[in-house]
Write a structure and sequence with these properties.
Elements (H helix, E strand, L loop, with lengths): L3 H14 L4 E9 L4 E8 L6 H6 L16 H11 L3 E7 L3 E9 L11 H11 L4 E8 L2 E6 H8 L9 H15 L7
Parallel strand pairs: 1-5
Antiparallel strand pairs: 1-2, 2-4, 3-4, 5-6
């Protein structure tokens, strides 16, 4: 994975496959303490503890189309390459919470990528899932949820083709206010 937005896309896809109806994405950028922390929480089917212990192994996957699952192992590896940390907790019937912390100034820290476009794509591709996004840069936060966007759109479906550019521009403009492009 070349950037954090692609990791988000991959991890959220796991949540969708797990049947999540609510997916929370939190990206915290702390310039004073030099870290970027990505948290993804869902209320999907969760994982049994035995599977959870093996989920960071690239040869552990639930897919039947191929025998490797690289998303979680690569996220863990990329976080740890920077001197950061990785954790994942899950409970069957409750959901999964994944957290990856990257040391921001480390040469191996991935760029953020197209965060706005990725989030907009997820929201518009899965209109029945409640996405809750929070991006915090130091003490300033931008938060948006699918339900807020639905209310603003006044009945226009999120998967209506004309909605994607609007959602993307809304997210971009708020990320610009956080000056997030200067941080990657």
């Amino acid at each position: 994975m070349k950037d954090l937005s692609l990791h988000i896309l991959d991890i959220v896809q796991n949540s969708v496959v797990a049947g999540a109806k609510v997916i929370q994405i939190i990206l915290e950028i702390n310039t004073a303490n030099d870290y970027i922390e990505l948290t993804v929480k869902d209320n999907g089917k969760g994982m049994e503890q035995e599977f959870l212990k093996r989920v960071v192994d690239p040869f552990t996957t639930t897919r039947t189309t191929r025998k490797v699952g690289l998303g979680i192992p690569l996220l863990k590896q990329n976080a740890e390459l920077t001197g950061g940390t990785f954790s994942i907790d899950s409970e069957p019937g409750v959901g999964t919470a994944l957290k990856a912390r990257f040391i921001k100034s480390h040469i191996d820290c991935l760029p953020l990528g197209d965060l706005g476009g990725t989030i907009a794509l997820l929201i518009c591709s899965y209109p029945d899932i409640e996405f809750k996004l929070s991006v915090v840069v130091d003490t300033t936060e931008f938060a948006v949820s699918t339900s807020e966007l639905r209310q603003a759109l006044d009945g226009v479906p999120l998967n209506e083709p004309s909605v994607y550019p609007l959602v993307k521009e809304y997210i971009y403009s708020n990320l610009d206010e956080l000056q997030i492009t200067n941080l990657s």
